[in-house]
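Question thread 4412

I'm putting together a teaching handout and wanted feedback from people who do this every day. The idea is simple: show students a protein as raw sequence, then show them the structure tokens that encode its fold, then repeat with a second protein so they can compare. Below is the first pair exactly as I plan to print it.
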Amino acid sequence: MTVTVERVTDASAAASAAALVSVLIDTVASGASVGWVEPPTAEEATAWWSALFDDPDAETWVARDGERVLGTITLVRAAKRNGPHRAEVIKLMVHRDARGRGIAPALMAELEEFATASGLSLLVLDTETGSLAESLYTRWGWQTVGGIPDYAIRPSGELGGTTIMYKRLPARSGGTRALA
């Protein structure tokens, strides 16, 4: 089957929250903390996704193979008045069963295309220092700002560092960027 990437809408939010439960649980169970120390219960994961989808500053995409959701990524616009040109990339996750199929780069490409079309010029993210994700972001043109040691408790119980990264986006064709 062909993998498709689609943006979560108000109409698809409830179904997407339920479908993303297994992706979040699998991601934490495979060693990525993504904000969790232990895999959440299905109820906790559903509530977390639902709250994220209620955030008016967040846009989320899912990658599907037919009806099955295989991965996700979210863009959160800066809430500060001095930051309408920037956003944070959070929760790039791909289920272990679907890794190596080009899903992560497809999700990131969709997010970056949307961000550029929306007038954003700067994206930021943090990722586990030394992780596969960090090397992927570097390959995709992200720049490292620096790292913070012992930033988060990993699912293993050990403290792990985080790397802060950014990416400047190209200006939209036709001139200057709108900041509203």
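The second pair follows. I'd like the answer to focus on this one:
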Amino acid sequence: MLEKEYFMKEALKEAKKAYKKEEIPVGAIIVKDGKIIARAHNLKESKHSSISHAEILAIEKANKKADAWRLENCEMYITLEPCMMCMGAIINSRIKKIYIGTLDPKTGSCKSVINIENYKFNHTVEVEIGILKEECEYILKDFFKMLRTKKRRKK
């Protein structure tokens, strides 16, 4: 198995944890020198917090582990394209590269709604899209299908 696929599978494990908690199933991991230093999944509903996205939570864990706010030699694997808030945190934390499973046509800030390459910030993040795309899309589609079914049953 390719290294990129291995790490995206680890991010998918986080997304599955979110799914079980009825959170939007997005997972993120941060890798430094070939080792996972942080992992997280969405917890917006559980924490009643609009900023408890997988990426933000993973960055906070990596900051603690590194005892630094700069994550310059780190890469992040995310099952879904980051929103503007998360992309801002990724840029500000100086993460070198992000690997994205699938695009988010509603809030994506790398290619979909906003193309981050069109803006010049003090730090440039490399972006690679499509790692285990089908698996990353499937968990999201299945989650929203489950929610719709659950909603119909309540009526």
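Top answer:
Good format. For the second protein you could add a caption like this: Helices lie at 3-20, 44-47, 54-66, 84-92, 133-154. The first helix runs from residue 3 to 20.
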